[in-house]
Automatic annotation (TrEMBL):
It comes from Dyella solisilvae. This is Protein BatD. Residues 22-41, 477-496 are annotated as: Disordered. Residues 477-486 have a biased composition (Basic residues).
Length: 496
């Protein structure tokens, strides 16, 4: 029952009822008639009809309240709408081996309760992978309403030219407060891929905006010995290309070193904003020294195409050289169980410094012991070198270099030097004798013209080329005659 009014005087005319006072915490009213009747009689009649008035008033108040609304069954709510679009960013034709960004935008007028689920999509003739970068947030206006969403990124690297189609795939998301799963199928996306001609020596195309090679060699200091290891670490970093497209580093074997390669480590790099930046690949190998010597590891070169200028570039790291000695200094080559003077002496003698010192001492002793023979041998070698420097073929080669001489004095000096050296081997002593014994008319005429130019009253026409060719013919006759009349090596058996 609704609450009842504490005082009912308001339900009666003012000239019939008048509130006088309050006592004992309860509201109580006294009435007084206009005719001046006694208080006792009127009070008794009020008590008689007051409960019935309260009941009537309560029923009237309950009737004035509105009826409760009837419960109406509502149909189940439809799932919130979800829009998905797939596009290339930036748009345009691609080249074989070039990495493109495929964006998948997911929008809803509500909100995503959980991150949308995207599948791994297989595309024939291309590498397509979903990146781990931070999803981008989207806010757009669709038909006058505000839609929000997220964007995920696929990396696509085509391996063949022509039309490349990314098939339709399903995207599932939980939208709204109830988290109802919604599945939407994307539309296929077709891309155009242009062929790429690889230069000579390149087997795998690497297209990026920048490529950096970093080399680390440990240990950095020298002092290597047989049994030690040298680790070479090569890191390739490419901007705009995923790690799976980076070529492996080829560690070539080196004679005297045992090669042990480790599995590569690849990762895709993201920037400060969470977007894809590029890929990184680390290849390393250890070379274990098997014998003493000097070793060189070849340089490493990577050829790649600049995605901005479409030109081929090279990135490289230099080679590595090091020297390895016998045995570690802390471990003698011939270990002895006890310690003392002899073990220390053997340890020093077996070290590289000891071996070099002993070798120098032995060489010095041999040189002192055979000093006389060494002096005679040195004198003979010097004389032989002098003879070789002034041999007849050497002097004739100097004469042939005067073929185009314009100075008669220079040509005559070269001819005279050759004639004197040939005379030591049995040739004629003068050029006139050469002309008579082995020369022809042309040589005699050319030589006479040269002599008239040098010592005559009037100059005659001469040719350096003709003189050199004539001397060459005369020398040929002399050498053939000399071979035919070579003196026997043994004296006659029965000398007269």
């Amino acid at each position: 029952m609704d609450a009842q009014p504490q005082c009912l005087a308001g339900r009666f005319p003012a000239h019939k009822v008048q509130c006088r006072k309050r006592d004992s915490g309860a509201n109580r009213c006294t009435s007084r008639g206009l005719d001046g009747a006694g208080a006792s009689g009127s009070g008794a009649s009020m008590k008689a009809w007051l409960p019935m008035a309260c009941l009537l008033l309560a029923g009237w108040a309950h009737a004035q309240q509105p009826a409760p609304a009837a419960t109406v069954a509502t149909p189940p709510s439809t799932p919130p709408p979800l829009q998905v679009r797939v596009h290339q960013e930036p748009p345009g034709a691609l080249v074989e081996g070039e990495t493109a960004t495929i964006k998948v935008d997911m929008l809803t007028p509500d909100f995503f309760k959980e991150a949308p689920v995207l599948p791994e999509v297989h595309v024939d003739g291309a590498y397509l992978s979903l990146t781990d970068e931070t999803p981008g947030h989207l806010v757009e206006t669709v038909n006058g309403a505000t839609w929000s969403g997220v964007s995920r990124t696929y990396l696509l690297t085509p391996l063949v030219s022509g039309a490349l189609e990314i098939p339709a795939f399903d995207v599932t998301a939980k939208v709204g407060a109830q988290g109802s799963p919604v599945t939407v199928q994307t539309t296929p996306l077709t891309l155009q891929v242009q062929p790429l001609a690889l230069p000579a020596g390149v087997t795998q195309a690497l297209i990026a905006s920048a490529v950096t090679l970093t080399q680390t060699v440990t240990p950095e200091s020298g002092g290597l010995h047989v049994g030690d290891g040298v680790t070479r670490r090569i890191e390739i970093t490419a901007e705009g290309a995923p790690a799976m497209m980076l070529p492996p580093t080829e560690f070539k074997p080196v004679k005297g070193l045992a090669l042990y390669a480790t599995p590569p480590v690849t990762r895709d790099m993201v920037g400060k904003q969470g977007g894809f930046v590029g890929g990184s690949r680390v290849d390393s190998a250890s070379y274990v020294i098997q014998r003493r010597g000097h070793y060189s590891l070849p340089p490493v070169t990577v050829r790649w195409m600049d995605s901005r200028t479409r030109t081929w570039r090279e990135s490289n790291v230099p080679g590595v050289s090091f020297h390895a000695w016998w045995g570690a200094p802390s471990r003698p080559r011939f270990a002895l169980p006890q310690q003392g003077v002899m073990p220390r002496l053997i340890e020093w003698c077996s070290s590289d410094v000891g071996i070099a010192t002993l070798g120098m001492l032995a060489l010095g002793g041999l040189m002192w012991r055979f000093s006389d023979r060494l002096r005679r041998g040195l004198a003979w070698w010097r004389a032989w070198r002098e003879r070789r420097r002034h041999a007849e073929p050497v002097m004739f080669a100097a004469l042939k270099r005067q073929r185009h001489a314009t100075s008669p004095a220079a040509l005559a000096e070269a001819v005279d030097a050759w004639v004197r050296r040939a005379a030591e081997d049995g040739g004629p002593p003068t050029m006139q004798d050469w002309c008579v014994a082995y020369g022809d008319d042309a040589l005699r005429g050319d030589w006479s013209a040269l002599q008239d130019t040098l010592y005559g009253q009037a100059s005659a026409a001469w040719s350096a080329t003709a003189i050199v060719e004539g001397v060459s013919r005369a020398r040929g006759h002399w050498r053939r005659q000399r071979r035919g009349h070579r003196a026997p090596a043994l004296p006659p058996l029965n000398p007269a």
